[in-house]
Protein backbone atom coordinates (compact mmCIF):
# COMPACT_ATOMS: atom_id res chain seq x y z
CA UNK A 1 0.00 0.00 0.00
CA UNK A 2 1.10 3.55 -0.71
CA UNK A 3 2.07 5.57 2.36
CA UNK A 4 0.07 8.60 3.34
CA UNK A 5 2.03 11.86 3.23
CA UNK A 6 1.13 13.87 6.34
CA UNK A 7 0.51 17.53 5.56
CA UNK A 8 1.48 19.76 8.48
CA UNK A 9 0.39 23.36 7.90
CA UNK A 10 2.20 26.12 9.81
CA UNK A 11 0.57 29.16 8.18
CA UNK A 12 -0.81 30.25 11.55
CA UNK A 13 2.60 29.99 13.23
CA UNK A 14 5.59 30.29 10.88
CA UNK A 15 3.51 32.05 8.23
CA UNK A 16 2.50 34.64 10.80
CA UNK A 17 6.17 35.39 11.47
CA UNK A 18 6.26 37.29 8.16
CA UNK A 19 6.67 40.98 9.10
CA UNK A 20 3.21 42.55 8.97
CA UNK A 21 1.31 39.25 8.71
CA UNK A 22 0.06 39.10 12.31
CA UNK A 23 -3.44 37.62 12.60
CA UNK A 24 -6.16 38.10 15.17
CA UNK A 25 -7.66 35.21 17.08
CA UNK A 26 -10.82 35.18 14.94
CA UNK A 27 -8.78 35.33 11.73
CA UNK A 28 -6.74 32.35 12.87
CA UNK A 29 -9.93 30.40 13.53
CA UNK A 30 -11.26 31.21 10.04
CA UNK A 31 -8.07 30.00 8.39
CA UNK A 32 -7.94 26.90 10.61
CA UNK A 33 -11.46 25.92 9.58
CA UNK A 34 -10.51 26.35 5.93
CA UNK A 35 -7.47 24.12 6.44
CA UNK A 36 -9.64 21.53 8.15
CA UNK A 37 -12.07 21.54 5.21
CA UNK A 38 -9.08 20.90 2.96
CA UNK A 39 -8.19 17.84 5.03
CA UNK A 40 -4.87 19.09 6.41
CA UNK A 41 -3.58 16.56 8.93
CA UNK A 42 -1.91 18.92 11.42
CA UNK A 43 -2.53 22.64 11.98
CA UNK A 44 0.19 24.43 13.90
CA UNK A 45 -1.89 27.18 15.49
CA UNK A 46 0.81 29.28 17.10
CA UNK A 47 3.41 29.77 19.81
CA UNK A 48 1.41 29.86 23.09
CA UNK A 49 4.25 31.23 25.24
CA UNK A 50 4.71 34.26 22.94
CA UNK A 51 1.98 36.28 24.66
CA UNK A 52 -1.45 35.93 26.33
CA UNK A 53 -3.02 36.80 22.97
CA UNK A 54 -1.18 34.02 21.18
CA UNK A 55 -2.18 31.60 23.94
CA UNK A 56 -5.83 32.59 23.47
CA UNK A 57 -5.57 32.22 19.68
CA UNK A 58 -4.18 28.67 19.96
CA UNK A 59 -6.87 27.83 22.50
CA UNK A 60 -9.59 29.20 20.19
CA UNK A 61 -8.32 27.09 17.28
CA UNK A 62 -8.19 24.04 19.56
CA UNK A 63 -11.85 24.61 20.43
CA UNK A 64 -12.95 25.23 16.83
CA UNK A 65 -11.20 22.36 15.03
CA UNK A 66 -12.57 18.83 15.34
CA UNK A 67 -10.90 16.62 12.74
CA UNK A 68 -7.38 17.96 12.19
CA UNK A 69 -4.73 17.70 14.89
CA UNK A 70 -4.03 21.09 16.49
CA UNK A 71 -0.39 21.76 17.34
CA UNK A 72 1.35 24.31 19.52
CA UNK A 73 5.04 25.19 19.28
CA UNK A 74 7.30 25.41 22.31
CA UNK A 75 10.97 25.81 23.01
CA UNK A 76 12.55 22.96 24.95
CA UNK A 77 11.60 24.65 28.22
CA UNK A 78 9.11 23.43 30.79
CA UNK A 79 7.28 26.77 30.98
CA UNK A 80 6.82 26.80 27.18
CA UNK A 81 5.55 23.23 27.18
CA UNK A 82 3.15 23.90 30.06
CA UNK A 83 1.68 26.88 28.20
CA UNK A 84 1.29 24.78 25.05
CA UNK A 85 -0.33 21.91 26.93
CA UNK A 86 -2.80 24.23 28.59
CA UNK A 87 -3.68 26.07 25.38
CA UNK A 88 -4.24 22.79 23.51
CA UNK A 89 -6.37 21.21 26.25
CA UNK A 90 -9.72 21.75 24.41
CA UNK A 91 -8.47 20.05 21.22
CA UNK A 92 -9.92 16.72 20.20
CA UNK A 93 -6.51 15.84 18.75
CA UNK A 94 -3.48 17.71 20.07
CA UNK A 95 0.26 17.80 19.44
CA UNK A 96 3.09 19.61 21.21
CA UNK A 97 5.99 20.55 18.94
CA UNK A 98 9.14 21.30 20.91
CA UNK A 99 12.54 22.31 19.57
CA UNK A 100 16.11 23.21 20.42
CA UNK A 101 19.00 24.13 18.11
CA UNK A 102 21.62 21.51 17.30
CA UNK A 103 23.98 23.22 14.84
CA UNK A 104 27.43 24.25 16.16
CA UNK A 105 26.82 27.93 15.42
CA UNK A 106 23.44 27.99 17.17
CA UNK A 107 24.62 26.02 20.20
CA UNK A 108 27.73 28.15 20.67
CA UNK A 109 26.49 31.61 19.69
CA UNK A 110 22.77 31.58 20.55
CA UNK A 111 22.21 29.00 23.26
CA UNK A 112 25.68 29.14 24.86
CA UNK A 113 25.24 25.43 25.61
CA UNK A 114 27.43 22.39 25.05
CA UNK A 115 26.21 19.53 22.83
CA UNK A 116 25.70 17.36 25.91
CA UNK A 117 23.56 20.03 27.55
CA UNK A 118 21.47 20.35 24.38
CA UNK A 119 20.96 16.59 24.22
CA UNK A 120 19.90 16.48 27.87
CA UNK A 121 17.50 19.41 27.40
CA UNK A 122 15.92 17.83 24.31
CA UNK A 123 15.17 14.57 26.09
CA UNK A 124 13.85 16.37 29.16
CA UNK A 125 11.52 18.49 26.98
CA UNK A 126 10.05 15.50 25.15
CA UNK A 127 9.41 13.64 28.40
CA UNK A 128 7.73 16.69 29.89
CA UNK A 129 5.54 17.17 26.80
CA UNK A 130 4.38 13.54 27.08
CA UNK A 131 2.57 14.54 30.28
CA UNK A 132 0.09 16.41 28.10
CA UNK A 133 -0.17 14.21 25.00
CA UNK A 134 1.27 11.10 23.37
CA UNK A 135 1.60 13.07 20.13
CA UNK A 136 4.91 14.88 20.62
CA UNK A 137 7.05 16.25 17.81
CA UNK A 138 10.68 17.22 18.23
CA UNK A 139 12.74 19.48 15.95
CA UNK A 140 16.52 19.94 16.05
CA UNK A 141 16.60 23.57 14.89
CA UNK A 142 19.06 24.28 12.07
CA UNK A 143 19.41 20.55 11.41
CA UNK A 144 20.54 21.36 7.88
CA UNK A 145 23.81 22.73 9.31
CA UNK A 146 24.17 20.30 12.20
CA UNK A 147 26.84 17.61 12.56
CA UNK A 148 25.27 14.33 11.30
CA UNK A 149 26.73 12.21 14.11
CA UNK A 150 25.36 14.50 16.81
CA UNK A 151 22.02 14.74 14.98
CA UNK A 152 21.75 10.94 15.04
CA UNK A 153 22.44 10.88 18.79
CA UNK A 154 19.78 13.51 19.47
CA UNK A 155 17.13 11.84 17.30
CA UNK A 156 17.71 8.41 18.83
CA UNK A 157 17.42 9.88 22.33
CA UNK A 158 14.22 11.88 21.72
CA UNK A 159 12.53 8.94 20.00
CA UNK A 160 13.40 6.78 23.03
CA UNK A 161 11.93 9.55 25.20
CA UNK A 162 8.62 9.36 23.32
CA UNK A 163 8.77 11.66 20.30
CA UNK A 164 6.36 10.25 17.71
CA UNK A 165 7.54 12.66 14.99
CA UNK A 166 11.04 13.99 14.41
CA UNK A 167 11.21 17.03 12.16
CA UNK A 168 14.38 17.94 10.26
CA UNK A 169 14.35 21.69 9.52
CA UNK A 170 16.42 23.49 6.92
CA UNK A 171 15.97 26.57 9.06
CA UNK A 172 17.96 29.01 6.92
CA UNK A 173 17.20 27.51 3.50
CA UNK A 174 20.85 26.54 3.02
CA UNK A 175 20.56 23.03 1.59
CA UNK A 176 20.35 21.85 -2.01
CA UNK A 177 17.79 19.17 -2.95
CA UNK A 178 20.21 16.26 -3.49
CA UNK A 179 22.07 17.17 -0.29
CA UNK A 180 18.92 17.43 1.84
CA UNK A 181 17.43 14.22 0.46
CA UNK A 182 20.67 12.39 1.22
CA UNK A 183 20.61 13.77 4.79
CA UNK A 184 17.11 12.40 5.37
CA UNK A 185 17.99 9.00 3.92
CA UNK A 186 21.15 8.73 6.02
CA UNK A 187 19.34 9.71 9.23
CA UNK A 188 16.64 7.09 8.67
CA UNK A 189 19.29 4.46 7.98
CA UNK A 190 21.60 5.39 10.87
CA UNK A 191 19.18 6.11 13.73
CA UNK A 192 18.53 2.66 15.31
CA UNK A 193 14.93 3.38 16.35
CA UNK A 194 13.98 5.40 13.25
CA UNK A 195 11.10 3.00 12.57
CA UNK A 196 9.36 4.19 15.76
CA UNK A 197 8.84 7.78 14.53
CA UNK A 198 7.61 9.66 11.48
CA UNK A 199 10.35 11.69 9.80
CA UNK A 200 9.25 15.20 8.87
CA UNK A 201 10.84 18.17 7.08
CA UNK A 202 10.45 21.93 7.41
CA UNK A 203 12.21 23.85 4.65
CA UNK A 204 12.73 27.59 4.24
CA UNK A 205 12.90 29.28 0.87
CA UNK A 206 15.98 31.51 1.14
CA UNK A 207 17.42 30.07 -2.08
CA UNK A 208 14.03 29.36 -3.64
CA UNK A 209 14.43 25.63 -2.95
CA UNK A 210 11.97 24.95 -0.12
CA UNK A 211 9.56 22.86 -2.20
CA UNK A 212 12.36 21.10 -4.08
CA UNK A 213 14.12 20.22 -0.81
CA UNK A 214 10.85 19.00 0.73
CA UNK A 215 10.06 16.75 -2.23
CA UNK A 216 13.60 15.39 -2.27
CA UNK A 217 13.16 14.51 1.39
CA UNK A 218 9.88 12.72 0.64
CA UNK A 219 11.58 10.68 -2.06
CA UNK A 220 14.16 9.68 0.55
CA UNK A 221 11.77 8.56 3.29
CA UNK A 222 10.20 11.63 4.92
CA UNK A 223 6.47 11.16 5.45
CA UNK A 224 5.48 14.56 6.80
CA UNK A 225 6.02 17.94 5.14
CA UNK A 226 5.62 21.20 7.03
CA UNK A 227 4.41 23.95 4.74
CA UNK A 228 2.27 27.08 4.46
CA UNK A 229 -0.46 28.43 2.23
CA UNK A 230 1.02 30.61 -0.54
CA UNK A 231 4.50 29.80 0.80
CA UNK A 232 3.99 32.42 3.50
CA UNK A 233 6.70 32.72 6.12
CA UNK A 234 9.46 34.88 7.47
CA UNK A 235 12.25 36.05 5.17
CA UNK A 236 11.68 34.33 1.80
CA UNK A 237 8.95 32.09 3.18
CA UNK A 238 8.35 28.36 3.57
CA UNK A 239 7.53 25.47 1.27
CA UNK A 240 4.16 26.23 -0.35
CA UNK A 241 1.50 23.70 0.63
CA UNK A 242 -0.24 23.94 -2.74
CA UNK A 243 2.97 23.16 -4.63
CA UNK A 244 3.94 20.21 -2.42
CA UNK A 245 0.46 18.67 -2.54
CA UNK A 246 -0.05 19.08 -6.28
CA UNK A 247 3.47 17.85 -7.08
CA UNK A 248 2.80 14.60 -5.24
CA UNK A 249 -0.69 14.33 -6.71
CA UNK A 250 0.28 15.06 -10.34
CA UNK A 251 3.50 13.02 -10.25
CA UNK A 252 2.10 10.07 -8.35
CA UNK A 253 4.24 7.91 -10.64
CA UNK A 254 7.33 9.24 -8.86
CA UNK A 255 6.29 9.32 -5.21
CA UNK A 256 5.86 6.29 -2.91
CA UNK A 257 3.15 8.12 -0.98
CA UNK A 258 -0.15 9.88 -1.63
CA UNK A 259 -2.12 12.99 -0.67
CA UNK A 260 -5.51 11.57 -1.63
CA UNK A 261 -6.97 12.68 1.71
CA UNK A 262 -6.45 16.36 0.76
CA UNK A 263 -9.45 18.06 -0.88
CA UNK A 264 -7.46 20.00 -3.45
CA UNK A 265 -10.53 21.95 -4.62
CA UNK A 266 -10.15 23.93 -1.38
CA UNK A 267 -6.66 25.17 -2.29
CA UNK A 268 -7.62 28.31 -4.22
CA UNK A 269 -10.36 29.45 -1.78
CA UNK A 270 -7.96 28.98 1.15
CA UNK A 271 -5.20 30.80 -0.71
CA UNK A 272 -7.51 33.77 -1.22
CA UNK A 273 -8.59 33.75 2.40
CA UNK A 274 -4.99 33.84 3.64
CA UNK A 275 -4.08 36.54 1.15
CA UNK A 276 -7.06 38.66 2.20
CA UNK A 277 -6.39 38.33 5.93
CA UNK A 278 -2.63 38.90 5.77
CA UNK A 279 -2.66 41.53 3.03
CA UNK A 280 -0.01 39.59 1.11
CA UNK A 281 -1.23 39.41 -2.51
CA UNK A 282 -0.39 36.35 -4.58
CA UNK A 283 1.81 37.10 -7.58
CA UNK A 284 0.00 36.39 -10.87
CA UNK A 285 2.54 33.80 -12.04
CA UNK A 286 2.57 31.91 -8.73
CA UNK A 287 2.23 28.17 -9.31
CA UNK A 288 -1.22 26.66 -8.68
CA UNK A 289 -2.90 29.71 -7.09
CA UNK A 290 -1.66 32.64 -9.20
CA UNK A 291 -4.16 34.38 -11.49
CA UNK A 292 -2.12 33.33 -14.55
CA UNK A 293 -1.49 29.73 -13.44
CA UNK A 294 -4.01 28.40 -15.99
CA UNK A 295 -4.00 31.33 -18.43
CA UNK A 296 -2.75 30.92 -22.00
CA UNK A 297 -1.59 33.93 -24.03
CA UNK A 298 0.46 32.31 -26.79
CA UNK A 299 -1.51 31.41 -29.89
CA UNK A 300 0.29 28.09 -30.14
CA UNK A 301 -0.62 27.27 -26.53
CA UNK A 302 -4.22 28.37 -27.01
CA UNK A 303 -4.58 26.21 -30.11
CA UNK A 304 -3.13 23.22 -28.30
CA UNK A 305 -5.35 23.59 -25.24
CA UNK A 306 -8.46 23.98 -27.39
CA UNK A 307 -7.63 20.75 -29.18
CA UNK A 308 -6.58 18.86 -26.05
CA UNK A 309 -6.18 20.37 -22.62
CA UNK A 310 -3.31 18.02 -21.75
CA UNK A 311 -1.07 19.59 -24.41
CA UNK A 312 -0.24 22.50 -22.09
CA UNK A 313 -1.95 21.75 -18.77
CA UNK A 314 -0.66 19.04 -16.44
CA UNK A 315 -3.59 19.44 -14.04
CA UNK A 316 -7.14 20.72 -14.25
CA UNK A 317 -7.93 24.19 -12.94
CA UNK A 318 -11.07 22.71 -11.35
CA UNK A 319 -8.98 20.28 -9.30
CA UNK A 320 -7.45 23.10 -7.26
CA UNK A 321 -10.63 25.16 -6.90
CA UNK A 322 -10.61 27.54 -9.84
CA UNK A 323 -14.01 26.38 -11.06
CA UNK A 324 -15.72 27.85 -7.99
CA UNK A 325 -14.17 31.30 -8.09
CA UNK A 326 -17.34 33.12 -9.08
CA UNK A 327 -20.85 33.42 -7.72
CA UNK A 328 -23.95 35.09 -9.05
CA UNK A 329 -24.93 37.44 -6.27
CA UNK A 330 -26.17 40.95 -6.91
CA UNK A 331 -28.32 43.71 -5.52
CA UNK A 332 -31.45 41.53 -5.76
CA UNK A 333 -29.96 38.70 -3.72
CA UNK A 334 -31.49 38.12 -0.32
CA UNK A 335 -30.07 37.66 3.13
CA UNK A 336 -30.43 33.87 3.05
CA UNK A 337 -28.49 33.52 -0.23
CA UNK A 338 -25.82 35.80 1.21
CA UNK A 339 -25.59 33.83 4.45
CA UNK A 340 -25.54 30.48 2.59
CA UNK A 341 -22.71 31.48 0.28
CA UNK A 342 -20.64 32.80 3.19
CA UNK A 343 -21.18 29.51 5.01
CA UNK A 344 -19.97 27.63 1.93
CA UNK A 345 -16.83 29.77 2.10
CA UNK A 346 -16.41 28.85 5.76
CA UNK A 347 -17.46 32.26 7.06
CA UNK A 348 -19.92 32.41 9.95
CA UNK A 349 -20.82 35.28 12.25
CA UNK A 350 -20.99 35.23 16.01
CA UNK A 351 -24.11 37.38 16.08
CA UNK A 352 -27.05 38.44 13.93
CA UNK A 353 -25.86 42.02 14.31
CA UNK A 354 -22.53 41.22 12.62
CA UNK A 355 -24.35 39.41 9.80
CA UNK A 356 -26.66 42.39 9.30
CA UNK A 357 -23.72 44.77 9.11
CA UNK A 358 -21.97 42.58 6.53
CA UNK A 359 -25.21 42.26 4.53
CA UNK A 360 -25.64 46.03 4.48
CA UNK A 361 -22.12 46.42 3.11
CA UNK A 362 -22.86 43.72 0.55
CA UNK A 363 -25.88 45.68 -0.67
CA UNK A 364 -23.79 48.85 -0.93
CA UNK A 365 -21.21 47.01 -2.99
CA UNK A 366 -23.87 45.39 -5.18
CA UNK A 367 -25.08 48.86 -6.15
CA UNK A 368 -21.60 49.59 -7.51
CA UNK A 369 -20.82 46.21 -9.10
CA UNK A 370 -22.95 44.09 -11.41
CA UNK A 371 -21.61 40.78 -10.11
CA UNK A 372 -20.18 39.91 -6.71
CA UNK A 373 -17.35 37.37 -6.58
CA UNK A 374 -16.11 35.20 -3.75
CA UNK A 375 -13.03 37.44 -3.47
CA UNK A 376 -15.31 40.43 -2.94
CA UNK A 377 -17.05 38.64 -0.08
CA UNK A 378 -13.74 37.72 1.56
CA UNK A 379 -12.65 41.36 1.41
CA UNK A 380 -16.01 42.56 2.69
CA UNK A 381 -15.92 40.26 5.71
CA UNK A 382 -12.29 41.19 6.42
CA UNK A 383 -13.31 44.86 6.41
CA UNK A 384 -16.11 44.17 8.90
CA UNK A 385 -13.63 42.26 11.08
CA UNK A 386 -11.16 45.16 10.97
CA UNK A 387 -13.80 47.54 12.22
CA UNK A 388 -14.27 45.44 15.33
CA UNK A 389 -11.13 47.24 16.54
CA UNK A 390 -11.95 49.89 19.14
CA UNK A 391 -11.85 52.78 16.69
CA UNK A 392 -10.29 56.10 17.54
CA UNK A 393 -10.45 57.21 13.92
CA UNK A 394 -13.02 56.67 11.20
CA UNK A 395 -13.22 58.01 7.66
CA UNK A 396 -16.28 60.25 7.32
CA UNK A 397 -15.79 62.10 4.03
CA UNK A 398 -13.18 62.43 1.32
CA UNK A 399 -12.83 64.86 -1.59
CA UNK A 400 -9.90 64.66 -3.99
CA UNK A 401 -9.05 66.90 -6.95
CA UNK A 402 -6.47 65.60 -9.42
CA UNK A 403 -6.04 67.29 -12.81
CA UNK A 404 -3.36 67.17 -15.45
CA UNK A 405 -0.81 69.91 -14.83
CA UNK A 406 -2.09 70.71 -11.33
CA UNK A 407 -0.96 69.55 -7.88
CA UNK A 408 -3.38 66.95 -6.47
CA UNK A 409 -5.37 68.21 -3.49
CA UNK A 410 -7.36 66.31 -0.86
CA UNK A 411 -9.89 67.30 1.79
CA UNK A 412 -10.49 64.65 4.44
CA UNK A 413 -12.97 64.51 7.31
CA UNK A 414 -12.27 62.05 10.10
CA UNK A 415 -14.13 61.11 13.21
CA UNK A 416 -11.27 61.39 15.68
CA UNK A 417 -11.58 60.79 19.41
CA UNK A 418 -15.27 61.60 19.52
CA UNK A 419 -15.41 64.59 17.17
CA UNK A 420 -15.28 65.28 13.44
CA UNK A 421 -12.19 67.07 12.18
CA UNK A 422 -11.36 68.20 8.65
CA UNK A 423 -7.98 68.88 7.04
CA UNK A 424 -6.64 69.63 3.56
CA UNK A 425 -3.29 68.85 1.94
CA UNK A 426 -1.48 68.74 -1.40
CA UNK A 427 0.54 65.74 -2.51
CA UNK A 428 2.56 64.17 -5.28
CA UNK A 429 -0.57 62.22 -6.20
CA UNK A 430 -4.13 61.85 -4.92
CA UNK A 431 -3.24 59.07 -2.44
CA UNK A 432 -0.25 61.03 -1.14
CA UNK A 433 -2.48 64.06 -0.66
CA UNK A 434 -5.05 61.99 1.25
CA UNK A 435 -2.40 60.50 3.55
CA UNK A 436 -0.93 63.94 4.24
CA UNK A 437 -4.37 65.33 5.10
CA UNK A 438 -5.03 62.41 7.47
CA UNK A 439 -1.65 62.94 9.14
CA UNK A 440 -2.51 66.59 9.69
CA UNK A 441 -5.40 65.41 11.88
CA UNK A 442 -3.84 62.35 13.54
CA UNK A 443 -0.15 63.35 13.78
CA UNK A 444 0.87 59.72 14.15
CA UNK A 445 4.61 60.25 13.46
CA UNK A 446 4.60 56.84 11.77
CA UNK A 447 6.69 55.84 8.76
CA UNK A 448 4.98 54.33 5.73
CA UNK A 449 6.85 51.08 5.01
CA UNK A 450 4.54 49.51 2.43
CA UNK A 451 1.77 50.61 0.11
CA UNK A 452 0.34 47.82 -2.02
CA UNK A 453 -2.66 47.73 -4.35
CA UNK A 454 -4.27 44.53 -5.56
CA UNK A 455 -7.30 44.16 -7.83
CA UNK A 456 -9.59 41.70 -6.07
CA UNK A 457 -11.33 40.65 -9.30
CA UNK A 458 -11.11 41.49 -12.98
CA UNK A 459 -13.00 44.23 -14.80
CA UNK A 460 -13.10 48.00 -14.53
CA UNK A 461 -15.63 47.79 -11.69
CA UNK A 462 -13.33 45.55 -9.62
CA UNK A 463 -12.68 46.38 -6.01
CA UNK A 464 -9.18 47.50 -5.23
CA UNK A 465 -7.68 46.06 -2.05
CA UNK A 466 -5.03 48.27 -0.48
CA UNK A 467 -2.51 47.19 2.13
CA UNK A 468 -0.64 49.79 4.17
CA UNK A 469 2.17 48.97 6.59
CA UNK A 470 3.23 51.58 9.17
CA UNK A 471 6.13 51.56 11.61
CA UNK A 472 6.53 53.57 14.77
CA UNK A 473 8.98 52.96 17.56
CA UNK A 474 9.90 49.54 16.22
CA UNK A 475 6.28 48.39 16.04
CA UNK A 476 4.89 47.30 12.67
CA UNK A 477 1.15 47.36 11.94
CA UNK A 478 -0.75 46.56 8.80
CA UNK A 479 -4.02 48.09 7.63
CA UNK A 480 -6.32 47.04 4.82
CA UNK A 481 -9.15 48.64 2.92
CA UNK A 482 -11.24 47.69 -0.09
CA UNK A 483 -13.42 49.77 -2.36
CA UNK A 484 -14.26 50.19 -6.04
CA UNK A 485 -12.58 53.61 -5.68
CA UNK A 486 -8.88 53.00 -5.09
CA UNK A 487 -8.34 56.35 -3.34
CA UNK A 488 -11.10 55.58 -0.84
CA UNK A 489 -9.66 52.08 -0.35
CA UNK A 490 -6.29 53.69 0.36
CA UNK A 491 -7.79 56.03 2.95
CA UNK A 492 -9.59 53.12 4.64
CA UNK A 493 -6.37 51.10 4.81
CA UNK A 494 -4.40 54.02 6.25
CA UNK A 495 -7.02 54.74 8.90
CA UNK A 496 -7.24 51.05 9.77
CA UNK A 497 -3.48 50.94 10.36
CA UNK A 498 -3.62 54.12 12.47
CA UNK A 499 -6.32 52.57 14.65
CA UNK A 500 -4.04 49.60 15.30
CA UNK A 501 -1.17 51.91 16.19
CA UNK A 502 -3.41 53.79 18.60
CA UNK A 503 -4.01 50.69 20.74
CA UNK A 504 -1.65 48.31 22.53
CA UNK A 505 -0.86 45.22 20.43
CA UNK A 506 -3.22 42.28 21.00
CA UNK A 507 -0.12 40.19 21.50
CA UNK A 508 3.59 40.31 20.95
CA UNK A 509 5.02 39.30 17.62
CA UNK A 510 5.38 35.51 17.73
CA UNK A 511 8.97 35.45 16.52
CA UNK A 512 10.56 34.31 19.78
CA UNK A 513 12.29 31.51 17.96
CA UNK A 514 12.10 29.61 14.72
CA UNK A 515 12.24 26.12 13.38
List the helices and strands and how they pair.
Blueprint: E1 3-4, E2 6-9, H1 25-38, E3 42-46, H2 52-64, E4 69-75, H3 78-87, E5 94-101, H4 104-111, H5 115-129, E6 136-141, H6 148-161, E7 165-170, H7 177-190, E8 198-203, H8 210-219, E9 224-227, H9 241-250, E10 257-258, H10 267-278, H11 299-307, E11 326-329, H12 335-344, H13 352-368, E12 372-373, H14 374-386, E13 393-401, E14 409-416, E15 419-426, H15 430-442, E16 447-455, E17 464-472, E18 475-483, H16 486-501
Parallel strand pairs: 1-10, 2-3, 2-9, 3-4, 4-5, 5-6, 6-7, 7-8, 8-9
Antiparallel strand pairs: 11-12, 13-14, 14-15, 16-17, 17-18
Structure description:
A hairpin with an 8-residue loop joins strand 16 (447-455) and strand 17 (464-472). This protein folds into four domains: 3-278, Alpha-Beta Barrel (TIM Barrel), CATH 3.20.20.70; 294-324, no CATH class; 326-386; 393-501, Double Stranded RNA Binding Domain, CATH 3.30.160.270. The longest helix has 17 residues, at 352-368. The chain has an eight-stranded parallel β-barrel with strand order 2-3-4-5-6-7-8-9, surrounded by nine helices. The chain has a three-stranded antiparallel β-sheet with strand order 13-14-15. A three-stranded antiparallel β-sheet has the order 16-17-18. The protein has helices spanning 25-38, 52-64, 78-87, 104-111, 115-129, 148-161, 177-190, 210-219, 241-250, 267-278, 299-307, 335-344, 352-368, 374-386, 430-442, 486-501; strands at residues 3-4, 6-9, 42-46, 69-75, 94-101, 136-141, 165-170, 198-203, 224-227, 257-258, 326-329, 372-373, 393-401, 409-416, 419-426, 447-455, 464-472, 475-483. Helices cover 38% and strands 21% of the residues.
Amino acid sequence: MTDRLIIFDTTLRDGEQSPGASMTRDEKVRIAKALERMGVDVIEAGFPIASPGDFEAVQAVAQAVGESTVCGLSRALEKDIDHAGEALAPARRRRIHTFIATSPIHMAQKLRMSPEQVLEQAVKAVKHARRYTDDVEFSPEDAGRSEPDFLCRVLEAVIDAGAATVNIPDTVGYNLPHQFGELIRNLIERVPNADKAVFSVHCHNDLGLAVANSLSAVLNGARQVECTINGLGERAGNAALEEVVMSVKVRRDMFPCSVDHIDTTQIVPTSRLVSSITGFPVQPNKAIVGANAFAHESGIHQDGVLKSRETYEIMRAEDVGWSANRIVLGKHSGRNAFRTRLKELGIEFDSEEALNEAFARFKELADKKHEIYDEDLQALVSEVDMEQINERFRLVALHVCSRTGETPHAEVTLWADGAERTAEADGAGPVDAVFRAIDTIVRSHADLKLYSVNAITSGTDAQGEVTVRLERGGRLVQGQGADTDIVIASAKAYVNALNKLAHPPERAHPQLGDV
